Amino acid sequence: MELILFGAGHYGQEALSFFGAEGVFCFCDNSVKKGEEKEVCGKRVVSFAALQEICQDYIVVLCIKLEFSLEICRQMEEAGIIDYVVFEMLRSEGKSANEWMERLQDREERSNIQRQSYLFLLDKAMAQLKYLKHHSEITALKPAEGKLREYQFRLIERGKEFFRFVEELSIKPFLVFGNLIGAFRHRGFVPWDDDLDFGLVRDDYERLLAFAYEKCVVLTYEPEEDVWVDLEGNTIRNDMLCQTYPGRYILNHRPEFIQVSKCMETTNEYIMDLWGFDFYKAEYDFEDYKKWAAGVSKVAGEKKTRREQMLFIREAQRNNPMISSEMTDHFYPGIDNFFGKNRDSDIDDWIMSEDIFPLREVAYENTTFLAPRNMEVLLRREYADYMEFPDEVGMLVHGEGAAI
Question: CB-hemisphere CA count at 13 Å for 90?
Answer without folding.
Answer: 27
